[in-house]
Amino acid sequence: MILVTGGTGLLGSHLLFDLLKAGKEVRAIKRANSDTAMVRKVFSYYAGNPDELAAKIYWADADLMDFGAIEDAIEGVTEIYHCGAVVSFYPKDHKAMLKVNIEGTANLVNQAIENKVAKFCYVSSVATLGRAENDEVSTEETYWVPSKKNSVYGISKYGAEREVWRGMEEGLNAVIINPSVILGPGFWQDNSGLFRLVYEGLKYYTRGVNGYVDASDITKAMISLMDRNIFGQRYICSADNVSYQDFFTLIAKYLGKPAPTVNVPPSMTSMAWRVEAVRAFLTGSKPEVTREMATTTSQIYTYSSAKLCKTLDFTFRPVEESIREICNIYLSENK
Prior knowledge:
Blueprint (H helix, E strand, L loop, with lengths): L1 E4 L4 H12 L4 E5 L6 H10 L3 H5 L3 E4 L5 H7 L5 E4 L11 H21 L4 E5 L28 H18 L4 E6 L1 E3 L9 H7 L4 E2 L3 E6 H13 L6 E4 L2 E4 H12 L6 E2 L2 H18 L7 H7 L8 H7 L6 H15 L2
């Protein structure tokens, strides 16, 4: 039996699909109030029998912070794929994100060791890497450096990753994968929201650069690492490094919309998050731009997946191809 955390999310739903298509027996944990409809929706993008596949998932209500519930969910499990995490750049979520991502991962690692789980794959993030100097590309050897530029999300994932490394020291067969920005369809209000924003007429872009990767590429890499019993390592999973301007331009191209034309310099993004903070405070709503968002989108972050490609003889799907497919799905749902 394979256990998947975060199964109702973008990456988790793609992982469930690939595991079920391979004939694996899968149990997925979710919060009691979580909706599994998006899992079926993601399945429908890739298969003609989404309901049949979705019916094969054994759902278990469990919170990563509930040690007893995790203990029950892990019974009979031989492999764990830990995709579950709180992802947010909003200040009000920071405390919960740090607690769930770090302590929840520690709970799962401890239970995996106690129950002698044979294999453990942790989905971390490139946010746990240090930032390469002199415009060099970050690799697995670019180690974390404390900095005010580190997001709270990155800090939480770094803390969680340390719990997995600690588990390895205690005998857990684990591997860590560090994806860059994940591309996939369906989650138009959050993970896939950039596609919606461009469709609605996004006019602005920043000079930043980031890495991008298709969700399906990540899941294929994860499964391959586990199937080959490759443990005690971390692997960056990023298809290519693309500027925000080029990224938005590609989305606009395949959505049939005008590309953003207004460059927003760092000084303006700095002003924008401050104005938004005041507006959000006065209205009690979420800010459209936060300090972490402004900082991230103004930076140049580039990554190399050479280690993963060499280890697995892996070839990534081109980012433009991923964007084209996602745009086609978006248009089919928003005619």
